[in-house]
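Changelog-linked ticket: pyridoxal-5'-phosphate example.
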Amino acid sequence: MTHDDSDADSDRDASPANERFETRAIHAGQDPDPETGALMTPIHANSTYAQDRPGEDRGYEYSRTGNPTRSDLEANLADLENGSHARAFSSGMASINTVLNTLEAGDDVVAGSDIYGGTHRLFTQVYEQFDLSFSFVDTTDLSAVEEAIQDDTELLWVETPTNPLLQINDIAALAEIAHENDALCAVDNTFATPYLQRPLDLGADIVSHSLTKYLGGHSDVIGGALVTDDPELDEQFGFYQNSVGATPGPFECFLVLRGTKTLPVRMDRHCENARQLAVWLEDHPDVSEVYYPGLESHPGHDIAVRQMDDFGGMVSFELDATLEETSDICAETEVFTLAESLGGVESLIEQPAAMTHAAIPQEEREASGLSDGLIRASVGIEHYEDLRADLQSAIDAVLH
Ligand code: PLP
């Protein structure tokens, strides 16, 4: 395992104080309240702020523009991603939308063909009508990416691991291709989290997050974030954050700050459970395919070893079963809840073609290898044996 839990300096260390990730997850951006000593960032439930004289505020004027709870969250996220700036949004989609806000009519975007269905919908069903063009390519194939990039390509959009096929994209190589073509490289780091992968260190320009997932961690909040090292880009993100107004409330920011404190311990268990489950599924007589980057048989395993500190908590697989039997198995599980989303402490199971990725046309899904029978599991932090037994009894109930 590449995971570094020793006293030795970890790759994640980059803060001026050189504190390790686990320490920064708890403390970065969160000093005790100077007036009261309150340890936890207060939920600043304010729309507006008193000014000393017209135009002279004390750092905050209106909560769409800026809010102290949000500022602490943004400082925490920037630190964890080894970036200099972060902006929080009301959802992961709002953060992706903000990246697109910075483009102009006539610009082109190259994106991975295996991406979250909602991202694909935003690109094709919202922005194509504003004269942005999008091409979807297999981003594991670097020459296909080079071929897809045109003179007017301004953005390369990358997920890794991808949703739902858990493909691994080489961030450093893709960022280099984008830069050679005067385009920006944005990485959706939702599946890996900064605990496992820091795209800015690998050359990416923008990191996008759905905070709804592992960073929140408890399936009780919707949020998004953008992190960058480029002050000009951050200024643009801030302009659209304020102008569009898709900002998170202070309670949402508080919940995510609460989540990031335990991110390392949760992720360790997510990874361990997912790894054990993937190994078990790989040898299972009723399973035809397992997608997990921690398996040596996974085509992106070597890149994952290089660019990630562990392989994450998501496992996708296909059964030797009909479509209906597959749906029945998803409905039959009891510890795994049949639900969209991922990254919470509890295990979830779903069928992407009918649920999270239904917005992608069937031909496109099939072309990218997303079969109707694919099952995606967000492996939680329950006891591994209970998770394995639950899947086995659901398989037995339907197939045997
Ligand atoms: N990016 C990825 C990889 C996702 O899986 C999701 C949601 O599932 C999103 C972005 C969108 O995030 P949100 O649901 O917070 O808007």
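Closing comment: Example verified and attached. Residues 1-10 have pLDDT under 50 and may be disordered. Residues 91-93, 116, 118-119, 159, 163, 188, 190-191, 210, 212, 222, 224 surround pyridoxal-5'-phosphate (CB under 6 Å).
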